Here is the input.
Amino acid sequence: MRVDFDPGDVAGRAFYRLLNSVVVPRPIAWVSSLSAEGVGNLAPHSFFTVSCVSPPVVQFTSVGRKNSLDNAEATGEFVICLASEPLIEQVNASATDFPPEVDEFEAVGLEREPSVQVAPPRVARSPVAIECTLEDTVSFGDSTVVFGRVVWVAIDEAVLVDGHPEVKRLQPLARLGRNEWSTIGDVPRIDRIRHDDWPGHYDKG
Here is the structure.
């Protein structure tokens, strides 16, 4: 037996919490940006994914008007740093609702490093930095989806195996419901089945 939920009958924040508990795990865009005045900002956004392969575009969603969104619109640039398990305390701390004049790098105690193609700095201890220029934004109700054209990716050589990122070395964090987080855990592998190899496939010729 299922329990049904009609978004028209459930208060907005309650339905938001419901969705957050079932759309899991959610990767985290740890977004570094600069205000028009040059103040650094760093904040995690757990609505994050790849939008396009060619050209390479990624996206994150700002629920409400967050500093990440304001800064991306003001400067046209941002960096998405990988939120990794060893940095969970700092990732969580950077979600604090600091006012715009507070630099989260300094408040949280994170070392920054310069980016190559954009002005916002990277998190030095993050194993991956995806440098982006603002491609577009699309607003829906109380949220705005921010699309970033990927202009540079920098990956710590320590997480590469044969030139490719290895997920157990990356140790990515993900968000679950409420204040729950997820780490990588077991990583099963299963290859896709080609149609020609599908069980019962017959020879048409």
